Amino acid sequence: MRAAAQDEDERTRPRGRWRMLPWAIVALWVAVIAIAGPSAGRLGDVQVNRAVDYLPASADSTQVAEIQDTLPGGESTDLVLVYHRDGGLTAADRATAARQTAGVAGAHTLTAPPRAVPSEDGTTLMYPVSTTEPGQDDEARTAFVDDVRERVKGGGGLDVEVGGPGALHVDAQKVYGSLGGPLLYTTVAVVAILLILIYRSPLLWLVPLVVAGVADALSMAVVYGLNRGFEVTVTGQSSAVMTILVFGAGTDYALLLVSRYREELTRVARPHEAMAAALRGCGPAVVASSATVAAGLLCLLAADLTSSRGMGPIAAVGVLCALLAMLTLLPAVLVLLGRRVFWPLVPVYGSEPKRRRSLFAAMGGSAGRRPVAVLVTGGVLLGALSLGAFNLPGDLKQEDSFTSRPDSVAAMTTLADAYPGRSSQPITVLAPTDRAGAALAKARTTEGVASAERGRSGGGWTELSVVAEARPESAGERDTVHALREGLDGSHVGGPGAQQMDLETASSRDLGIVVPLVLLSVLLILVVLLRSLVAPLLLVAAVVAVWGAALGIGGLLFEPVLGLEGTDPGLPLLTFVFLVALGVDYGIFLMHRVREEARRGAEPTEAALTALRTTGGVIASAGLVLAATFAVLTNMPLTSLVEMGFVIAVGVLLDTFFVRTYLVTSASVALQRKMWWPGALSRPPAAPAPREPELVGTP
Predict the structure, then answer these.
(1) Cα torsion for 650, 653, 655, 659, to the nearest 10°?
(2) DSSP H helical ranges for 419-465
């Protein structure tokens, strides 16, 4: 007995350099994280979340913001103090308002004394307040707005709210600043629960989760370096998506590797040799799929929107850091822990895996019996769902950007009801100082303008504050902005409403440029990987159909069910890039196995069904994890993140359980060898050469 145990120990113990290699890899990662940790912790310090930070540098409203920074005092912080009583303001209310606003003026340096603007119905007083005191310092701006909110208080039926662009900016900053912790904790909890259910082991689930956390820290440090070295724009949205991708994609890679490793442990005695075999088996597919995802994401560098252009490399960094950790640190840790990490379902050397009835075998069989009917039905269903995209709500307004109403949004709503003929959000015009007088006169006579006042001057520019008659971000205000831009030659027109217009224009332009670029780059990579033209075209068409259907489901649910009253302008582009890149990721896993079976001599139908039966379970697990991680975004307090998380999560589920299972498998069965045209697999195997007949009776 003891001799047998010694033989087993000798057979499974690592030999030579293999004994130290896992320890060396772990030590290297510890050193990397020790060096990168401080930089990762500073990523939040370089985030920018103003609307103008998302815009291209060439946009008119961006020019306004940059010129304002050079004016005396720098960037201004504009607030609106709102005093409201439903039954009408009393004399005591007006006295309270005058006393409190005087206190604000006494405590801070304002560009002008607060002046009350009463509403016609007598229910509301509006006090515009502007200061350059905080400058461009976000912490100072937040402190200023918080102090104002402390000084202006209501009670006894008097409602007091602080609104305006400055208050909206501070509220948005607070929301973005609060995302990191809840997003990370929720993502980790969701992934942990799913891994426990998938692995049914008290220890194994923890290993990929810890490795994903290490990859997340590395990705944050790398992105911080990109910001410092190359001025890559980092927003709260891009940081959130990067974390989701690290845990989602990283866990997917871990699922594929661990599944293959478990399989190899039943055939190979030593864990390090089993891991080497697992890496040889699934490593190329994992590397190819992650490279395809990264290439698709990097196409966002062609976007005009600064935020989208920054999202590309940031998301790609997340995917590549996850890949690096899962192909180096994860194997090292698993080898060091040995077979016991799988307890209680420990894979025994020489054992046969249990044969279970496969759900995916049954699903593939049903798709294989009538492939053409399944293809047509599936295509019609996806097309019908895509029509729901026409029901998407209109462009997202600032007041609808939050899923809960902060004080600044409540103030905007009150002002819109109380002042229907006057905007509470000025349009900012920067005119050359030598033509400022003429520009002011022209602005005052422009249709849709209620008033215009001259402000600061400096650096050859003069600031004009223009108040529109229409409410903020309405069609009327848009017409006024267009009229000002057309009528004021040599001037720049900006402000919150103009920024939103420029955002929509840039998003539309990016959609027309980035989408074809993503399709072309992904298609070329697939052609090289699969040695075929038909299969890549099929995979790309499938993921595009998934994107359309997921967006259509969003259109059917966003406003009627979820109460979301606007669609972020960047939603179509970002969801397209992510769903195409991630969907092709799963397509590579499936078609790589189909190709492998076909090269072994399997007939096309057998190859497709075998691939689905053997990879369906792990792809389904990976899809569930990825969809769940993106679904975490639907719990965030920003409408843009909720919409993005919803569409991507729904798209991943559609792709995993419908398109991959039924449509791609059915297409493989229906097309047979034509799937691999014009590659070698598209041609039937050569028949053996016939034997020459023997000549009987020949001497």
Answers:
(1) -110
(2) 436-444
Query: In which band, very low, low, confident or very high, does the pLDDT at 404 lie, cut at 50, 70 and 90?
Result: confident
How many CB atoms lie under 10 A from the CB of residue 237?
Answer: 27
The closest of 564, 541, 523, 590 to 647, measured between CA atoms, is: 564
The residue among 59, 143, 53 whose CA lies nearest residue 107 is 143
Query: What residues contact 159, with CB distance under 8 A and at least 6 apart?
Result: 82, 83, 84, 85, 414
Which pLDDT tens digit goes with each residue over 425-469? 889 999 999 999 999 999 999 999 988 989 889 999 999 989 898
User: 């308002």: which residue's tokens?
Assistant: 97
Residue range 52-69: average pLDDT? 87
- Identify the DSSP state of 353: P
* Three-state SS at 22: helix
**Distance separating alpha carbons of residues 436 and 676, to the nearest angstrom:** 68
For the chain, the farthest-separated pair of C-alpha atoms sits apart, in whole angstroms, at 133
Q: Residue 230 has which token pair?
A: 């190359």
- The residues, ordered by sequence, that sit 6+ positions from 49 with a Cβ below 8 Å of its Cβ are 172, 173, 176, 235, 236
pLDDT of residue 567: 92
Taking a C-beta distance cutoff of 8 angstroms, is the pair 67, 459 a contact? yes
Give the contacts of 136 (CB within 8 A, at least 6 positions apart): 69, 74, 75
Question: How far, in Å, CA of 503 to CA of 165, rounded?
Answer: 16
Cβ–Cβ < 8 Å for 397, 500: yes
Query: Which token pair is 153?
Result: 């208080």
pLDDT at 616 (0 to 100)? 78
Mean pLDDT of 531-551: 93
Q: What interhelical angle do 496-530 and 306-337 show, nearest 10?
A: 50
Question: Judging by beta carbons within 10 Å of its beta carbon (0-12, 13-18, 19+), is residue 451 exposed, middle or buried?
Answer: middle
Give the tokens for residue 659: 């398109």
Nearest to 472 by CA among 464, 463, 481: 481
Q: What CA–CA distance (Å, rounded) separates 254 from 330?
A: 8
Angstrom distance (rounded) from CA 110 to CA 301 = 41
Pinpoint the alpha helices (H) of 299-418.
306-337, 359-369, 371-386, 407-418
Taking the C-alpha atoms of residue 456 and residue 605, their distance in angstroms, rounded to an integer, is 75
Site of tokens 């492998």:
596
Amino acid at 664: V
Query: Percentage of the chain surpassing pLDDT 70?
Result: 93
**CB-based contact 311:238 (threshold 8 Å):** yes
Residue 285 burial (10 A CB sphere; 0-12, 13-18, 19+): buried
What is the per-residue pLDDT across 78-134, written as a single tens digit (0 to 9) for each? 899 999 999 999 999 999 999 999 999 999 999 889 999 999 999 999 999 988 887
Burial of 558-591, coded b for 16+ CB within 10 Å and e otherwise, reads bbeeeebebbbbbbbbbbbbbbbbbbbbbbbbbb
Distance from the first to the final alpha carbon of the chain: 71
Q: Are 524 and 665 in contact (CB under 8 A)?
A: no
List the one residue out of 350, 339, 272 whose CA is nearest residue 14: 272
What pLDDT does residue 3 have? 41
